[in-house]
Design brief:
Blueprint lengths: L6 E4 L5 E6 L3 E2 L2 E2 L2 E7 L10 E6 L10 E7 L5 E7 L2 H4 L3 E7 L5 E7 L6 E3 L6 E3 L11
Antiparallel strand pairs: 1-2, 2-5, 3-4, 5-6, 7-8, 8-9, 9-10, 11-12
Protein name: S9 family peptidase
Amino acid sequence: MSLGISGFEWYPNGREFIVSASSKRLPTGWEPIKLYRIPKDMNLNEKKAELLYSIRIDENNLFAVDVGNFKWSHDGKWISFLGTPTPSWAMDSNPLCVLSSDGKVFRDIGRMLGFSDWFKWAPQANQLAYISGEGRFFVEN
């Protein structure tokens, strides 16, 4: 499909993917994590990739170098995913984020440990439940 992908998930329509490209450390700091929408017939044609959203990295607020574990809401209007910071930091805190399917609305929801089965969409509503926590401890609700 494409080069440079670190994570992906089908769109609910089955005709395209949401894909992520990891951040890299530059002399000026961390570059944004980029999310793209690509058609399933991309066939390495870079012109078919559409930038959906760029996640700005802030080491004090939202720190991740990659995102993955994509999960769509029941109506396909939202996608949730976990950010992954550097390996040792990921053992203690991972940002849980949501993005609208059109890339216009992004939210940093909270922090949790890196267990993808600890966040789930409600079966028939745009409600996201998750087990929060940091520092290798978790809390309910």
